[in-house]
Every structure is written in structure tokens, then in C-alpha cells.
Protein: Sulfonate ABC transporter ATP-binding protein
Amino acid sequence: MSSINTVLNFTAHKPHVNAESAADASRASAKAGVLHQLPVHSEVAKPLVPKPIVLKISQVAKEYVLGGKQLKVLEGIDLEVRQGEFVSIVGASGCGKSTLLRLIAGLDAGYDGNIVYLGQTVRETDLSRGIVFQEHRLFPWLTVEENILLAFSATDVPKAERKARVKAQIEVVGLSGFEKAYPHQISGGMSQRVAIARALILRPKLLLLDEPFAALDALTRLKLQQELVRLWEQEDLTTILVTHDVEEAVFLGDSVVVMESHPGRIKRIVPVNLPRPHVRADLEFQRIKEDVLQDFV
Structure:
């Protein structure tokens, strides 16, 4: 209608324009109006395809002999982890969460049930699975650079490539300038970064973290949690974290596996359906955190 009004106003002020030209303009305007009324078909969003399952744990059980008696540590553990997923496992002391992590790492083959990673049953360690413990476990007589280089001891990676990869990994964890420092010359948080760099240097596809920040002060822990998220996104790692800290579990995880004790079992799995990065002050973050905490109070 506005286009027609424009034409009419134009002809009103320009009396020498002939009627045929005005009619042509009117028809063009009407045609444009029809075109504007045609429906615009927006592209239909394709459904997200779930990433493949890379780790499948089925009916896993574990026992120890204590004082001549069988002690059940884990029972009926079922868990699936997809490629690139960050899974947090939270539970009270003695619930078997660290034991489960050791089984996934292949550090203990004495279990019942099945643990299958990338189609292979896990019964021993493998370079595709890296692990970081609560203690950094650095050798005090070796420098930062040498401690990371130690990870190559069982590989045939050429020396030149080793040095290049160590230099790059030190940059990734933010320790450039400390290559020649010894463990006693750096802080606890920096030592844990070295341990993480050592675990990542062989480019594992699965990173296992056994309470890596538990011994650190609160401020350092918060900073390293953010650093871990950055590394996880940058390296596209499938990651499993064991922790006592519910807030840490929710902040880092795509889901939180809640374990109960005696024997260790999975009570439930809580999805963390929040956009990244997770914001601690967000109301939904707080709701999920309080929901998980209810299992322990």
C-alpha cells in the first residue's frame, strides 16, 4: 500500500508523467506487494546426533580381602560415557569412586563385570588413557621440563619431537618460564599443572582425574577448575573426574554421578543441562548443586 501511495503522490506532483507510466509503476508495486506476502521458509535445524559411546561399564564389582574376610567395595556399577563428555563422580569417602577410576585406568585388573573402552576390554594400562592423582607425584630432583619428559620413557617418540611437545604443553598449562624450576621452587597449584601436562603430553583420548585439586587452597582450586575447563575444550578430551566437592562436580561436569557406600553403587546420575561456561551464581546451577547435596545431608 505504501508503494502505491508513493506512486500516487509522485504523479500528483508531476503532472507531465503519462498515465501509461503511472500504470506500469502501479503494476510493479502491486507485484512487489505479492512477493512480500510470499512465505519465507526458514531452514529447519538438524537434530543433534549423539556422540558415540567410548566407555561402557557393565555390572562391575570389586572386592578386597580385609582381615581374612571379603570386603565388597563396588557392586553393580553401570555407566556409559560419550566422546568428549565431562563426567563428574561425587561421593563420600570410602564409596569406591577412586577404586572405580583405577579400574578404568587399567591399574587394577581384579574385578568382575566388564569395562570396555573403544571396543577393548580394560585389563591393563594404555597410553590412550591418562590419569592425574591427588598428589602431583613429581620427582623432586627433576625440573618441570624433565618431569614432563618422563612420560615419554616407554615410547619411541623421537627426541626432537619430545622437546617440541613438552614446550607446547608447558605453554598450554601456563607454565612458560618455569621449565627449569624444581618442584620445591613452584607452588602446589603449579605442581598440579605439571602433573596435568605430563598426563596430556601423550595425547590421551580419555583423561582421568582423581581429586586433583583436593589439597589446594580455595582460590587456587577455583583458578585450576577454570583452567581445566579450558584444556578440556581445547583438547576435546573425554574426561572423568572424581571429587568430594559437589560444587566442583557441577561446575566441571556435563553430568554428576552420585555414588553411595557399603558397597559402592551408583545411586543416580544428575544431568547438568547448563550452557558453557557454567556460572556458579546462576539460579539453575544452585538448584542442581542443592539437589545433589540432598543425597549427603
